[in-house]
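Handout, section 3.2

Students often ask what a structure token actually looks like in practice. Rather than define it abstractly, here is a full record for Riboflavin biosynthesis protein RibD. The first block is the sequence as you would receive it.
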Amino acid sequence: MDKIFSDKEYLALAVTEARKGANKTWQNPQVGAVIVKDGRVLATGYHHQFGQQHAEINALSHLVNMEQARGATMYVTLEPCCHTGKTPPCAKRLVDVGIRQVVIGQLDPNPIVSGKGVKLLQAGGVDVKLANFPMTINHAYNSFYQQQRPLITVKYAMSLDGKINKQTGKRTLLTGYTAWLDSQHLRAQQQAILVGEHTLLVDDPELTVRQEILLYPPIRIVVVHDVNLLSSQLMLFKGDAPVWILSQTPLKQSLPGQSKVFVNAEWTPQAIIALLTKKGIQSLLVEGGSHLQAEFISQQLIDQLVVYIAPKLLGGGGLPAVAGTPLPQLIDFKQFTVEQVGADLRVSSRREV
Ligand code: AOF
Ligand code: ZN
């Protein structure tokens, strides 16, 4: 029987499946799969959670019996894997059960798989079609392997005259509840959140996501001169998410909770990013303050910018959103959107489309 829907439509269905794993696959990609035979969708599946079976295997498990797989087409958002990781290789399983054709949304940027999954399928006699489907999922996963560093988002809230604070050394409440909720959601999508020492001491932030229950809450990272000078009463030490302290001085006493300390002579943005890359962290939210933000921006270590603008004027003095030295050349953003969040505005920009 002829196909009822196009490859694009079946892949769109596979993406819908993939999205069901949102916030649960952590450092693994969200993947969805659809099995089609004789114009009928026989089964769908997705990667539910980090460490669990892959989307392809999940879809196969929804068939009435494995005979149904013989001669069928599988639509899968990501190139099937060829390695034995936490689970056996999917490409081999697809060959073994007699899948005739695999239509792939995108190649896997992860070097342990990239291109090799396709080869394994072809060597097993499977017809492989690469659809190059425009992907709206796995933004951080793809970016991590392409740039070999985490996807970096800088976020701040400012007044209409570009200030984040009325005066240095004191917190000024600028944006409202809706913007706060929105920024909680932004945090929830990250694998790590970073603030500088000044923000840590002035704002005393908890840096957790309180609005959503997360399987993998973002790691809270702070850069400080001397970890030994931090009070154990800081809000940072409350909550369940892991804490990493990047200190210039080695630790002399014990720390509350499950905090980890990393020591380096100087924690430049490059040194921070090198550590996170080594640890496989795919996304980072830089949440302040204006000096740390400026350092990341001046090193061009920024992929996305989210700015909340409050309908307030602070007047002269105060702390600008981005301090430090000017850039040698302007940073151009390719994507630029504005949204009303309660009484405030959210302006988001991306360097890549
Ligand atoms: C997934 N889910 O549905 C597919 C993945 O650590 P492992 O063994 O689970 O392997 C993770 C890698 O497997 C991942 O980086 C990607 O390259 C490949 N495909 N992973 O978690 C899936 N198809
Ligand atoms: Zn797999």
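Discussion prompt for tutorial groups: The two ends are 39 Å apart (CA to CA). How would you have guessed this from the sequence alone?
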